[in-house]
Protein 1
Amino acid sequence: MHLGAMIMVLTLSPSSYSRESRVVLGRHIYLNTAPILLGFSLLCALVTMVLTRIVLVTALSYGLSQYALQVVIRVLVLELIPLTSALFVALRCTIPDGAELMALQAGGALDEMRRQGVEPIRREVLPRVVAGMFSGLTLAALSCVVAVVVAYLTVYGFTVSGLAGYTRLFGQVFTPVVSLIFVLKTVLFCLSVSLIPMASALYGMRGASVRSSAEMRGLVRMFAVILLVEVASLVGNYY
């Protein structure tokens, strides 16, 4: 909570966006987002196609084909994509960034910055957190678009005849309350996977001998927070 408040203040502070800081921030955003966009989009398209086909075949066998697309949208777009995007960003970006920050902490580089009058939170932590948030939100948004398009093509093919019914079905699923919960859940997931590895690197280590335990505590905290957010969203959506 303390680190999150500091990051929020620094993010809104114009002094955090000097020319040098913008270069560092842009580099982190690019490295955390661009290399994984294509691979994750292809994976999302493949999973969407397979899952849609399974749900369609199962629904047809029980005579419930009219509910198949609604199930796909609810399970895939509402639940799986935000969670998968956050975990993917955590494994590929923020956890390695946290390990790198922990190495800087153990080597005394952060203390050296403080002695030189440079704030490590602004220089090293802020770009990594913002890049993790940007990457997670970008992957979630792009994956939703890919899943919606692939699900439509899987069901209706390359025709616009089902577009009106598909749009109406999508609107029935994404009510204002569900849309708000979806946005809040996605933001909280991205915030969790971006902040917690950095907090563990900064505050969870008291020497090189406890590095592994600090990393493990950080992972446990991150997955616990993600689980709590997911349970809260399920309660909001279905109760």
Protein 2
Amino acid sequence: MIREIVTIDEQRCDGCGQCVPACHEGALRIVDGKAKLVSDIVCDGLGACLGHCPQDAIKIVRREAAPFDLTAVAAQRTDHSAEHQARACPGALPALTPSGPSGGGGCPGSRLMTFDPAEQHVAETRPRNEPSPTNRQSELTHWPVQLRLLPPTAPVLQGARLLIAADCVPVACADFHTRLLRGHAVALGCPKFDDLEGSIQKIEAMMRVNDLHGITVARMDVPCCQGILHAVLEARRQAASDVPVNDIVVNTRGKLIAQRAL
């Protein structure tokens, strides 16, 4: 079939490796000092890697290529995870130690990690007369959280209740963790600044690969934020999915002002 796929100009490529962690599907590797496409079937052609190449060595072309295969992506990420992470950020700082089984070396910013929120719910020891500024604990179960960085094949998404929230919602909503995040995997994005088509395709892939139990969309009460709901509904249509969607609207003072099932 003829479709869009990445191509790499080896004359321009200097092997910096910045494109590798930007590819959510793990389709790029550094081989003999140059970025290489592992296989056509693990490249979705969206070009998330393009903006991360300082040498402008990566382009999108239309050519004969095998269809994109999410099953192959899952196998690719499993088989090459350790090597991928080691090559992803050659000059990265030492990896942070996560409280979960998904740790390892590589780039801490895009490395998949899982957490157990229950481990974080440890009571603070403080004098009885000293008020605690907050008794709330993090309900986050994984990293990364940005929609652009979270791969559709992330184990935390399998059978999950997924919260897709606009970037501004956690800032506006004081009880975001307890009211919205608890019990959910989360993906954050901004419909104004993110690539809408890319978001639609990412969410569609999440629906097709995982047996999602439901999606909650949390957005701000501003016109541009309607785009995140549009992305979810269009992804559901393209995936021919019947996953239930719950739409929540928060105003700029953090108050939940509307909620509906779609």
Protein 3
Amino acid sequence: MKNHKLSIIYLIILIIFTVYVVLDTFVFSSVYTVTQNKNTKKINSGDVTLTDNSYSDDNIEINIKEYRENDTTIYVADVVLKDNSLLKTAFANNSYGKNITAKTSSISESVKAILSVNGDYYGVQEKGYVLKNGNIYRNTSSGNEDLVIYKDGSFEIVNEDDVSLESLVSKGAYNVLSFGPALIIDGDISISKNEEVGKAMASNPRTAIGKISDNHYVFVVSDGRTSDSEGLSLYELASFMKSLGCDIAYNLDGGGSSTMYFNGKVINNTVGGRGESERSVSDIVYIGY
């Protein structure tokens, strides 16, 4: 009888501990740092020309196009910048922390983004580089393949185990996106169908960012998991980014997170319908002043 009671007590303690770990990982939130952007400068936009699918001023030109491939609707924002500092990232609630999240559209509105997509969702990982707008928030390696965005607007793919975040910053790194994998490196597809495993092989909503040439970028979001759009595999996404002419391209958080925001509204069909069921995320990549 005594052993039976001890077993029950042990089981109760185990359940309580397990519930706490799950809640601490996915629910309980903690703010570690309020965002402070470095090298902030005022830039005059000049005259603005805006339509439903385009934006232009003295420093930014954005054109939105819709494609249909692999039974999937894909949204592409073609972006040309005269000032690379207008390519930025932003945290949910302007805060770095644990389980700090908000909808992509809400974060975008808070920073007055012209165009944005969901970012790398750093908040679901306890390791992995977090460098946002010149500020180091986490420098512990997860061994991940990252996209480094430098102050001059150039892109580089690195492995966290091969280089410290501090050394990247010393070279001019301004933002690091830690999700992956890399899709295009030096103009060539960097993944193969055989390398995809698990959910990566499935057709899903996807988000990616790519560089075509100096100051010329593309933001890409595909629909998926709907009756109208099957979604893309990672290889299909990489092939599409190559068809756009990307010299380098990188996969960001996808699935329910995949969201493209432009001119004050969500333009893709999120998993539950256009803008109706945005997943809250920890960060965005955006174009804005």
